[in-house]
Amino acid sequence: MAKITLENLAHSYLPNPKSEDDFALKELNHDWVDGEAYALLGSSGCGKSTLLNIISGLLQPSKGRILFNDRDVTMAPTTERNIAQVFQFPVVYDTMTVRDNLAFPLRNRGADPSYIKERVQQIAAMIGMEATLDRKARGLTADAKQKISLGRGMVREDVNALLFDEPLTVIDPHMKWELRTQLKSLHHEFGHTMIYVTHDQTEALTFADKVVVMFDGRVVQMGTPQQLFETPEHTFVGYFIGSPGMNLLDAKVDGDTAVIAGTQISLGKGFGTPTGKTELGIRPEFTSLQFGNEGLPVTIKRVEDVGRHKIVRADFQGTEINIIAAEGESISPDMNRVVFDTAGINVYSDSWRVAPLVA
Amino acid sequence: MNKTVNQKAWFLILPVLLLVAFSAVIPLMTVVNYSVQDTFGNNQFFWAGLEWFEQMLASERMWDALGRQIAFSAIILAIQIPLGVFIALNMPKKGFWASVCLVLMSLPLLIPWNVVGTIWQIFGRVDIGLLGYTLNAMGVDYNYTQNFYAAWITLIVMDVWHWTSLVALLAYAGLQSIPDAYYQAAKIDQASRWKVFRFIELPKIMGVLMIAILLRFMDSFMIYTEPFVVTGGGPGNSTTFLSIDLVKMALGQFDLGPAAAFSIMYYLVILVVSYVFYTVMTNLDKRDGH
């Protein structure tokens, strides 16, 4: 188990990267604290897997250093790093039995046969495959194969970190929950550092203590699920996390008031005078529909009932605004105003959050 | 719902039927026809029953040719399959050099059989051939027209040169289809190079490898042109393989009946071996699945 430090780390798949755009992973400084469970969240192609492969040593970074417990391992091969990694698509050794598959990493490290036997049994129980231990891995279903991959990842107890690269993509939904819960309990039990790459926000928010959101090769925010929800540091975080994502509206901000397309609203806090492209970000959870002449004038386009609440899609001068209304709330087509709860308003300048001034 | 019955649809298979009839069935039947008859010339034939078959089965000449044939196929398979896989494993995976290798590898496959024979016939000649002359100048007694071993070695080296590429290309294609994640997982699991080959690469290329073995078996079992050009079956009968013997019998001695019986048995051997091979191969695939 180890603390993993990334120092000025950057990676480009091109031999001679020139501009910043050539980098799949932009310069990054980060500490992965020993024993924490992290989720690495972002859309496809944002550099999540690149970062993971650099940590596991499958990829040499173009720039920067990686330290395990302050020891430089940047150039060390995968075997020396003692890391377990599970990939998006199941990797099993077809000609081996399930048992041999699970024992493989231990045997390659010359573990004691009696220990291997016991440990394989434990892992098989964990992934629910005790009954199929002596079958050949070939011909099993995709989720059974992926469970074997997960099992092979977890079979070693002494690993520095466990890395998961979207491991549940091919698994049935009900099994997803189960495996995720098991991963979590495994984490509590053994305290491995875990990094879990995913593009599924639910998966990230339920699995991890800390979520690291990546966008375009950059880490845009790291925080607890609550921080990501309440104070997204970047408009991407606001938009990517939440269902539906944060509403973003072009605005002119001056102190504690904002002007959106001619309508003035109060922000409740002072923000100074941010420069650049200024936007107001407000989650649908902090908005409400009303009659009258307070707030922004909108027209309701449609209402979606998703069970626990309703999502109202409204139009404000060509921009869509999503509003979440409580299950029992009645919505009339005459409601023509949307009002923001000032507690939920964030101000962005060039996509980055502007911290409110403390009064 | 009533089924529409329209027997005219049978006419649609007529072209295929004709094609197969002329390309396979009729020629085969003429051979069958010869194999059960005897002739004393003048285009007069007499019924001979299974006599030719009995005669061929008792013929030492045929059993010797079969023995040589099996030895030849076994030797070239034992060399070409591992060598082809080894080459495929060491070929560059992508980029400029991968293309260069692919082109170089396919060159021998593009040369017609008799040209391959001629190349090696001249290459190995003691008087003017680069190989034959050099070996003899170095004091090696090499002469494929006189020495049994020299003749066999020449034919084997020639076949390896001509056909190993095929195995290598098939294995290479199989290797290319293995996703990177397998190699990455193997690294994470600390598998040795040998284990990567044994548990990842070999199982993944098994399918194409089986096809390569089957193709090479059938082809080498029917080999005619190259040994005919290089050694003509000699010295003595030492490189007289089945098809060379067959041609000698059918066209040299004009023993149509025995030659026809011989052909049919030859054909059946290849058919049976290929069938057994194919069945074993497909069952291997299925066995673990159920």
Quote the CATH topology of the largest domain in chain A.
Answer: Rossmann fold
Structural class of chain B: mainly alpha
Assigned CATH class of the largest domain in chain A = Alpha Beta
Overall number of structural domains of chain B: 2
- Strand and helix order of chain B: HEEHHHHHHHHHHH
Distance between the termini of chain B: 38 Å
Straight-line distance between termini of chain A: 44 Å
SSE order and pairing:
The complex is a heterodimer of chains A (359) and B (290).
Chain A: E1 4-11, E2 25-32, E3 37-41, H1 48-56, E4 63-68, E5 71-72, H2 78-81, E6 83-86, H3 98-108, H4 113-127, H5 142-154, E7 161-165, H6 173-190, E8 193-198, H7 201-207, E9 210-215, E10 218-223, H8 225-230, H9 235-240, E11 247-250, E12 252-254, E13 257-260, E14 263-266, E15 278-282, E16 287-290, E17 296-297, E18 299-305, E19 309-316, E20 319-326, E21 337-340, E22 345-349, E23 352-354
Helix pairs in contact in A: 3-4, 3-5, 4-5
Chain B: H1 14-35, E1 37-39, E2 45-47, H2 51-57, H3 60-90, H4 96-110, H5 113-123, H6 130-137, H7 148-176, H8 180-188, H9 193-221, H10 225-230, H11 242-252, H12 256-287
Antiparallel strand pairs in B: 1-2
Helix pairs in contact in B: 1-12, 2-12, 3-7, 3-9, 4-7, 7-9, 9-12, 11-12
Overall description:
Chain A is α+β, with helices and mostly antiparallel strands and 359 residues long. In chain A, 25% of the residues lie in helices and 33% in strands. In chain A, α3 (98-108) packs across α4, α3 (98-108) runs parallel beside α5 and α4 (113-127) packs across α5 (142-154). Chain A is globular, with a radius of gyration of 24 Å. The two termini of chain A are 44 Å apart. Chain B is mainly α. Chain B folds into 2 domains: 7-47, no CATH class; 59-287, Orthogonal Bundle (MetI-like fold). Helices cover 72% and strands 2% of the residues of chain B. The longest helix of chain B is centred in the last third of the chain and has 32 residues, at 256-287. Chain B is flat.
